[in-house]
Design brief:
The complex is a heterodimer of chains A (about 800) and B (about 650). With about 800 residues, chain A is an alpha+beta fold. Chain A contains 26 helices and 14 strands. Chain B is about 40% helix and about 15% strand. In chain B, about 55% of the residues are buried. The chains are: A alpha+beta (about 800), B alpha+beta (about 650).
């Protein structure tokens, strides 16, 4: 399939090249350096005696090795180990120094002597011999290789190959297809990393009607139905085959209406509030003649589906939110101040630069808008239509944020994953274009998904015990966008996915047998990328969740169907489960789950009388009168927050912080050695692990006596799970009752490391590099696992 | 124990509020300290939550009360304030309006005591309550409140703790003027009265005055040793009246020489040891600037003293002098008889300026900061507004300087001399921070108290002048928030190393609140000599008595003791944050919704309960004589025993 390329894969290059002109003493003995290849991965070009810059110019810490470009990644293979400590969570698909081609944003070649520099694109020529290669990556890394001892021709070839292969002409050329193709054709017997192709994930993908049915049941959306009118994508090319519509709309009507909508995207249901209000999204109506009539019909149908016939409100996202281009430009600016501009120069005016990037502004705008929608659903008991021209960009962010704020199910790991599946992947977000995987047009590129993750992080930052997962999870999820083997981030919608798959099978002349299926795995198959030990990095030790009213854990429970008045009290007052809190690790009793402030507890009952309060007026203390939704939020904030209830973010600019782990993790100067929030996580994890251990001890004592006490639900598992349960904690308590100090390898970048990344001149000699030199070496997760076991 | 007044079911004490009587004997508090903790907690969050409470709501529930003053008064009377021992009510005024910047007008009762001003109102649900330490008041101003009625008077309390409170009230004939009374108790020193700390009569189970014993502290550091001696040359403050009586100086320097050095150093503050590295013997030495003057005066004894300091550390043949000032300022000082050590007269000495601006710049910066955070957060351009105050920039300078000092000691094994002009402002900021980085003892609850007592109080930081206790001269150019800056730096460090400090944010906020409160004697004087002369130890209580009576309130549940571990905070703008939990805490919208520490305390409680259960079962099991060994080491002694309710 790569025959289009001018470069032929050469197997000669496996052998160490004859380099007579190289002084032997400079290099370690030439051992055979080979790339570790995945099934279907081939070496395109490689060059030996390359120096990976670790510190700065001509540093002693630099590594010598071979730079290889394959059809999947840029690989650097070396026999040397880093002199500096390093803890980098290892991706099973990638080696320590590897970068997937899809992650490469810009390929820059430099010739120092001639003072030349060129940004390489696809199929380009390079008129000078590069002395240096700098790769700017989409995940904010910057990696530098030096060719001063490498063969000039080989170096040039590798640079050109990287530039070329990082811009595939067709989605089929993304490595994931090569991988499954090879697998299918029998060259590798088992799935990747032992995982079955498509199996192993508990996350509902919402590709079949039963997933939607379950979601309807869970949220108690009785007046809504799954419709299969788009099966085979006959109606809309960007909607999923199954989606949910008001029960009062017949398939025939839908077929008829579809034509009037942009992209034939009919209004679809996202989620139901427990009070019966529905969250829906809809594309613009393109036919002006039909606009009014159609609008009316849709609204009527939605009203009909509301148990109290609640009103419908429209939220015009295009009008109220920044455009895709604005969001993209903002990230470009942020990238500049975070990783490209010299560190010291940006120090002085850091705060102003952050403000100028507008990134936090946009984060705030999206959160604010989502809060307004929450207010309509919760405070006004009305349904909401998120309206957007195409209905597959901004509305993905808003609808998922709304659901995370209101429904604690989506704050669990599997709930969150199903949300991304439901509101992004199946809703037809153009991941391929927005990620710009093919690097065809920069105009379409927009980091909306990253913006969404940042918004989630802000919520997480304000409500640390409300989420089952950690910020590390969010960062790793975001990085997975640039590993092009997962179906999740490679397509512009479900139909595009299906079509590409179909074309691929045809091109490859693969005929699938009955019941046979060939598909790319979703990213939710985490064991493809991470070891079981490392997946424990996802778990938030202070999550308060499973004892919640609508815990899901395996068994899907339905929402408690409540009339609108009791909603707040059910959630914020005493949850029905009154199991002794002493027996559940992460289920704290309601009284204690509150922040325990005296003055605020008395405010609880007031929440029920929300409507009454909204009527009354405020003293005019501000020039701008408070909007009802601000009023609603302010009222909510006057009481304690329940991590399993509604969560509203605080939205003053002073409340929003830069997501340092994500944006600064590769910046060596910005690392706090042995510090950062992770040291707190470390301490709590140990505590949580001790509690797990104690609980299992208790069970062992209580176990043999039948009917002694109802067995406590262990952390993270449904009652009655087998005794020996692996700890959910990444950090484990050393010896019982003795908390250990944070290990040397912890830093504010953990589990990532800037060592070997983003090396700019002038780094050496800073206090940081000195500090890093002093500590012990941690090479991989496996070392750690062995140590803690 | 008395409940917090703001609590929804707070005590409903009857009694005539008009009578400015002292508290009835029966009202003695079982655990006064406990109520103070509540008060502190409230400072962090709960006051704020009441401020946000909805004024309109009351119209629905007891709207009649507003129209019927009598009925309203009855309600207000039910709500009384909790006084500390020794505190007495001086004035009560009904129908005072508090002009809340966050939720509008609220009418209620104002109570003035000799320690605090209280305001409470039952107009709102939950009842509105706020109080101000009179010591925190920087200035009193009358404001125009004509809009609230003809004979209304307005009063603004501008506070040192970043808030400004505005009240409107009607003058009643039979009552003394509120402003006069307030001024009398807020600025007692100007009216010939004593500070409230001298009336405060609380009995604490522990005595905080004993926390710091210089001999013990130097012994902990391994002093005296062969190079360094504990000297009594200043035993009655004859050498330097702002230094403590016990000084650590090189063994081989005769007292006469020290006197000559004293004459050569600003305010006679000679170079003395503050801290010694347990392994390398490198030291932190502090002093005032040398009085070099425009003609490059020299002092042989001073040169010899610094040479001896260098020689005392065998690991290095250099001595580093960190002058905290901006080099230009140091030059100006030189022209005015001050100056800095010349590298040509002091061999092997390396001098660096840390370029930290003076106290006036810092005062101005905090003033600007107040404009940004109080009463409302500048929404449109928050980051650039904060940037323009330069507050964080100065925090960065301080931390950078301290990191440099710590790094030279730890990695360079070189002794360091630190001074500014007089050696009592920027010097303690830097030495105390460096010591906090180098010595894990100072990161414990007790150790931090020792650090403050030693580097700040005993070495003569001018608390009286910098804070202006009981003084109405709010415009004094001697005032400056240097200690606040120091605590801010400590807070920044706790943010970067959440598991490295035994104390929590509440502790830091409490320390700052009592810096101003004048409730405790701890921060009242400017030197050890003054402190002795005023008999603070016998006549007032120590803040540490109060803190150490309930250490669990002030401990950080994340804390993991890391002995001998040096902390290097990252003094980068990227990691420094504005401490909104202190500066912007009066804004109800800044209240944290879900403090992590609470969840953690719950986890700790849960762990203890489980441990108890496991132990009980193990006992049971061994009684049943199952003959099987108990699983694991479940009965190991508990290391931490925080109580959790």
């Amino acid at each position: 399939m790569f025959t289009v390329r001018p470069l032929k894969p050469t197997f000669k290059s496996y052998l160490p090249p004859l380099q007579t002109d190289v002084k032997k003493s400079l290099h370690p003995p030439v051992k055979k350096l080979e790339a570790t290849l995945l099934p279907g991965e081939i070496v395109v070009n490689e060059v030996n005696f390359v120096r990976k810059c670790i510190g700065a110019e001509k540093s002693h810490d630099d590594l010598w090795g071979k730079l290889i470009c394959t059809n999947f990644k840029v690989s650097f293979v070396t026999h040397e180990a880093l002199a500096q400590p390093r803890f980098q969570v290892s991706n099973r698909l990638l080696g320590e120094h590897d970068i997937p081609l899809a992650c490469v944003d810009q390929v820059v070649t430099v010739n120092d002597a001639k003072g030349k520099k060129k940004v390489l694109g696809s199929n380009q020529k390079l008129k000078f011999n590069p002395s240096e290669l700098i790769l700017y990556c989409k995940d904010f890394r910057i990696v530098r290789f030096s060719f001063d001892e490498a063969g000039p021709e080989g170096a040039k070839k590798v640079c050109l190959a990287i530039a070329h292969y990082s811009r595939p002409a067709d989605p089929q050329l993304l490595f994931g297809f090569e991988l499954i193709g090879t697998r299918y054709l029998g060259s590798s017997e088992d799935g990747l990393n032992g995982a079955r192709p498509a199996g192993g994930s508990q996350t509902p993908l919402f590709a079949c009607s039963s997933d939607w049915d379950r979601e309807i049941k869970r949220t108690g959306a009785a007046e809504w139905r799954v419709c299969s009118v788009n099966q085979g994508y006959g109606v809309s090319p960007s909607l999923p085959e199954f989606f949910v519509v008001p029960a009062s709309l017949a398939d025939q009507d839908l077929r008829q209406y579809a034509e009037a909508f942009s992209g034939q995207r009919l209004p679809v249901w996202c989620w139901n509030h427990p009070n019966g209000s529905a969250l829906t999204r809809m594309a613009a109506i393109t036919d002006p003649l039909q606009q009014k009539r159609l609008d009316q019909r849709i609204c009527n149908a939605i009203i009909k589906s509301h148990p109290q016939r609640g009103d419908v409100h429209k939220a015009d996202l295009d009008k109220n939110l920044p455009s895709l281009q604005q969001v993209n430009n903002s990230l470009v600016r942020l990238r500049h101040i975070c990783v490209i501009d010299p560190f010291e120069e940006t120090e002085e005016k850091w705060l102003s630069s952050v403000e100028n990037s507008q990134w936090l502004d946009y984060v705030r705008t999206f959160l604010k808008h989502s809060c307004d929608v929450v207010y309509i659903l919760e405070g006004l008991n009305a349904s909401v239509i998120l309206q957007e021209e195409e209905g597959r960009d901004l509305s993905c962010v808003v609808s998922s944020l709304v659901q995370i704020m209101v429904d604690p199910h989506f704050r669990s790991l599997s709930g969150f994953q199903s949300l991304v599946q439901k509101e992004w992947v199946m809703a037809g977000h153009r991941f391929l274009d927005r990620c710009n995987h093919l690097k065809k047009s920069d105009k379409e590129e927009s980091p909306l998904f990253l913006l969404f993750l940042d918004c989630v992080w802000q919520l997480m930052n304000q409500y640390p015990s409300a989420f089952e997962f950690t910020e590390t999870y969010l960062a790793l999820l975001s990085d997975s966008m640039w590993v092009p083997v997962f179906s999740t981030f490679l397509f512009n919608g479900p139909k595009h996915h299906a079509d590409t798959m179909h074309d691929f099978l045809e091109d490859k002349k693969i005929t699938l047998g009955e019941g046979e299926e060939l598909c790319l795995p979703p990213v939710w198959d985490w064991s493809q990328q991470l070891s079981v030990t490392d997946q424990a990095l996802f778990n938030n030790p202070i999550y308060v969740g499973k004892a919640a009213p609508y815990a899901h854990n395996g068994a899907v429970k339905s929402f408690r169907r409540t009339k609108h008045k009791t909603w707040s009290s059910t959630l914020r007052g005493a949850p029905p489960s009154q199991t002794g809190w002493s027996s559940t690790l992460r289920g704290t009793p309601p009284a204690l789950a509150r922040n325990g402030l005296q003055g605020s507890q008395g405010t609880l009952p007031r929440r029920n009388s929300l409507a009454a309060q909204l009527k009354s007026d405020l003293f005019p203390v501000r020039d701008v009168p408070e909007s009802p939704s601000e009023r609603f939020a302010r009222d909510w904030f006057s009481g304690p927050a329940d991590p399993q209830g509604l969560l509203l973010p605080q939205l003053l600019p002073s409340h929003l912080a830069l997501w340092r782990l994500y944006f600064l993790r590769w910046v060596p100067e910005a690392v706090i050695p042995r510090g950062g929030p992770v040291t707190a996580v470390h301490a709590v994890s140990q505590l949580a692990h001790e509690i797990e251990t104690l609980q299992s001890q208790l069970r062992r004592y209580k176990g043999p006596t039948p009917g002694s006490t109802p067995r406590a639900s262990p952390a993270g598992g449904p009652p009655g799970t087998p005794h020996a349960e692996p700890s959910r904690m990444f950090f484990k308590a050393g010896s019982l009752y003795e908390p250990s100090p944070p290990p040397e390898f912890l830093s504010s970048s953990f589990p990532f490391t800037p060592v070997g990344n983003l090396c700019r001149p002038n780094l050496r000699g800073t206090p940081i590099s000195k500090l890093l030199n002093g500590a012990k070496t941690w090479l991989s997760t496996e070392t750690l696992a062995g140590e803690t076991a | 124990m008395e409940k917090h007044p703001a609590g929804p079911d707070g005590p409903k004490k009857a009694g005539d509020p008009r009578r400015p009587s002292v508290r009835a004997p029966g009202e003695a508090l079982d655990s006064p300290a406990g109520s103070h903790v509540e008060w502190c907690k409230q400072l962090i969050a709960a006051t704020i939550s009441t401020q946000i409470s909805d004024p309109a709501l009351s119209k629905d529930s007891d709207g009649a009360a507003l129209d019927d003053p009598e009925k309203f008064q009855v309600q207000v009377q039910l709500k009384d304030v909790a006084l500390v021992t020794g505190e007495s009510v001086q004035l009560r005024a009904q129908d005072v309006m508090y002009i809340c910047p966050f939720s509008g007008l609220v009418t209620g009762m104002l109570t003035l005591t000799d320690y605090k001003l209280y305001f409470n109102s039952l107009e709102r649900e939950p009842p509105f309550f706020l109080d101000v330490n009179l010591g925190a008041i920087s200035r009193l101003e009358t404001i125009n409140v004509q809009s609230h009625g003809e004979d209304s008077r307005g009063l603004e309390l501008v506070c040192k703790d970043m808030r400004s409170l505005r009240f409107a009230y009607k003058k009643e004939a039979d009552q003394p003027e509120l402003v006069d009374l307030l001024a009398r108790y807020a600025f007692p020193l100007c009216k010939g009265l004593a500070l409230f700390a001298f009336q405060y009569q609380e009995d604490f189970p522990v005595n905080g005055w004993t926390v710091y014993d210089p001999v013990m502290e130097y012994k902990r550091q391994g002093l005296p040793n062969e190079s360094w001696a504990l000297s009594r040359v200043n035993s009655s403050y004859q050498l330097c009246d702002t230094y403590p009586s016990l000084l650590v100086v090189p063994t081989c320097i005769p007292e006469d020489d020290l006197r000559r050095v004293a004459a050569f150093r600003a305010k006679h503050r000679i170079p003395v040891l503050s801290w010694i590295h347990p392994e390398s013997q490198a030291t932190i030495v502090r002093c005032g600037q040398p009085l070099v003057g425009p003609h490059d005066r020299r002092c042989k004894e001073d040169e010899r003293l610094l040479q001896t300091v260098m020689d005392a550390n065998a690991q290095s043949h250099k001595l580093l002098i960190f002058d905290a000032r901006q080099s230009s300022v140091a030059d100006t000082n030189k022209a005015k008889d001050g100056g800095y050590e010349s590298e040509s007269f002091y061999p092997n000495v390396e001098l660096s300026f840390l370029e930290i601006p003076n106290i006036h710049v810092m005062r101005e910066s905090l003033r600007k900061l107040k404009e940004v955070v109080y009463p409302t957060i500048d929404e449109a351009s928050w980051h650039s507004s904060v940037h323009q105050t330069h507050w964080l920039e100065y925090i960065r300078l301080l931390l950078t300087g301290a990191v440099r000092i710590a790094d030279r000691l730890e990695s360079g094994k070189t002794s360091v001399v630190v001074h500014c002009s007089d050696g009592w402002d920027r010097t303690p900021q830097l030495t105390a921070l460096a010591m906090l980085m180098l010595d894990s003892y100072y990161r414990t609850l007790q150790g931090f108290q020792v650090l403050v007592e030693k580097e700040w109080i005993s070495f003569g930081h001018q608390f009286t002048a910098r804070v202006g206790h009981g003084d109405e001269d709010h415009a004094s150019s001697e005032r400056s928030p240097l200690f606040v800056q120091f605590i801010d730096c400590v807070w920044q460090m706790t943010r970067q190393f959440p598991a490295a400090f035994e104390f929590n944010e509440l502790f830091l906020v409490s320390v700052l609140d009592h810096l101003y409160s004048c409730l405790f004697g701890t921060f009242l004087c400017s030197s050890e000599r003054e402190k002795g002369a005023q008999e603070l130890q016998s006549k007032t209580k120590s803040l540490w008595s109060y803190i150490n009576s309930q250490p669990e309130e002030f401990t950080n549940p994340f804390f993991v003791d890391q002995e001998h571990h040096v902390l290097y905070p990252l003094a980068s703008s990227r990691h420094l944050e504005l401490w909104t939990g202190y500066y912007a805490r009066w804004n109800p919208r800044m209240r944290p919704q879900m403090p992590v520490q609470q969840s953690l305390k719950e986890l700790l409680g849960l762990k203890l309960e489980l441990q108890r259960k496991v132990e009980a079962l193990q006992k049971e099991a061994s009684l049943c004589d199952r003959a099987s060994p108990p699983p694991h080491q479940g009965a190991a002694p508990l290391r931490t025993a925080p109580t959790c309710t």
